[in-house]
């Protein structure tokens, strides 16, 4: 890719790759850098700090392949020589092409935000553009706006489904090699509402429990390098302590030429001592569903203890509530479930906002699936009169 789109008019002689690296370094999180690079069409090899995944290791869902309609490739294909010459009508034409190509409104809105950030945080600051054309787009006419407080389309687990997941992880904890670790991860995910990326990104030194039997405290590293501390209720902290009792990562020898302090040790590790990948969180949830609510035709398990467990009343309860989640369960649903169930039990919205690490309360409101509004709807009262005497 050649990027004459980012000229060195200031005489610095910086290449397009160097300028894009400068922009991406604004974001301290590597995940954020990769996300912006993907939406803008920047080669991942240009992302500062990016290391290509090992092709021999299974990494869960594969990243979507570039389509050529990302912002930079689109600009190049349409003959633009400088970002300064792009106007709002060009951005709108790009959005229309994305829509015709089948991009969802949510994806188009996210990609437009990436373009806007590139102008606002870099091009205008560096004198390479005078205005931000992406900011002039009428997001409403482009169907990119969601009304404030509109519930998210992300599925939410029922309260009983959350209990079933916790119980399933508890019943398997002592029978699987990594059972205690997986149970601790499920407990924290459901009991705090943290993101899956935040969960696996914690370090061993981020956890503390001043008094045994009391609550625990876990520092998580959120978006935008914003750290926060979340409370671990006593049962959650107990599950984490049980995992830490048997957590014995192998010693890793110092590398030749390695100087300075050792990198932070991850809290959750694999059997080889590596940090657990975020895809493993999804795999754990799917495994719980598949174990207690297997698909039709699945052969009976070989382990006698598991066959006996699956005939218990506890297993029946778990299967009832996990069967609807099989095949589509995702860890982000735990975050929505935490917010909704907390609000339904009278927790102040501002506290839920702080727990989730949202900068604005309106963001938290989008996570709520308030069933009280459905149960208390006036539709129930109207129906009595509308159907009286004939239905």
From TrEMBL:
Protein's UniProt name: Tyrosine-type recombinase/integrase
Record carries keyword Cytoplasm: no
InterPro entries with a match to the protein in the record: CB (IPR044068), DNA_brk_join_enz (IPR011010), Integrase-like_cat_sf (IPR013762), Integrase_catalytic (IPR002104), Integrase_recombinase_N (IPR010998), Integrase_SAM-like_N (IPR004107), Tyrosine_recombinase_XerCD (IPR050090)
Core-binding (CB) domain: residues covered: 14-123
Family named by the database record: Belongs to the 'phage' integrase family.
Residues in Tyr recombinase domain copies: 152-381
Keywords: DNA integration, DNA recombination, DNA-binding
């Amino acid at each position: 890719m050649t990027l004459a789109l980012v000229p060195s008019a200031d005489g610095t002689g910086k290449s397009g790759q160097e300028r894009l690296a400068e922009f991406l370094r604004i974001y301290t999180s590597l995940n954020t850098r990769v996300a912006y690079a993907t939406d803008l069409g920047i080669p991942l090899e240009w992302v500062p700090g990016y290391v290509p995944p090992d092709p021999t290791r299974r990494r869960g869902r594969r990243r979507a392949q570039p389509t050529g309609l990302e912002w930079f490739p689109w600009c190049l294909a349409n003959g633009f020589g400088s970002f300064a010459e792009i106007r709002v009508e060009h951005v709108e034409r790009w959005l229309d092409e994305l829509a015709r190509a089948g991009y969802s409104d949510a994806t188009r809105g996210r990609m437009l935000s990436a373009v806007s950030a590139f102008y606002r945080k870099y091009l205008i600051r560096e004198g390479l553009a005078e205005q931000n054309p992406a900011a002039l787009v009428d997001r409403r006419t482009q169907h990119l706006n969601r009304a404030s407080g509109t519930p998210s389309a992300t599925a939410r687990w029922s309260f009983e489904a959350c209990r079933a997941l916790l119980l399933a992880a508890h019943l398997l904890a002592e029978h699987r090699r990594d059972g205690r670790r997986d149970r601790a991860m499920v407990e924290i995910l459901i009991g705090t509402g943290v993101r899956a990326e935040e969960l696996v990104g914690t370090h061993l030194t981020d956890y503390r429990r001043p008094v045994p039997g009391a609550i625990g405290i876990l520092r998580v590293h959120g978006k935008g390098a914003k750290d926060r501390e979340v409370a671990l209720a006593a049962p959650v902290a107990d599950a984490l302590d049980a995992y830490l009792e048997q957590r014995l990562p192998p010693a890793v020898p110092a590398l030749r030429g390695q100087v300075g302090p050792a990198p932070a040790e991850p809290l959750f590790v694999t059997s080889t001592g590596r940090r657990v990948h975020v895809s493993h969180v999804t795999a754990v949830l799917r495994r719980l569903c598949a174990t207690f609510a297997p698909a039709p035709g699945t052969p009976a398990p070989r382990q006698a203890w598991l066959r006996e467990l699956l005939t218990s009343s506890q297993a029946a309860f778990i299967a009832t509530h996990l069967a609807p989640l099989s095949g589509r369960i995702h860890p982000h649903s735990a975050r929505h479930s935490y917010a909704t169930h907390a609000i339904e039990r009278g927790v102040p919205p501002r506290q839920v906002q702080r727990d989730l690490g949202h900068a604005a309360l309106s963001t938290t409101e989008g996570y709520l699936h308030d069933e009280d509004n459905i149960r208390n709807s006036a539709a129930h009262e109207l129906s009595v009169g509308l159907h009286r005497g004939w239905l």
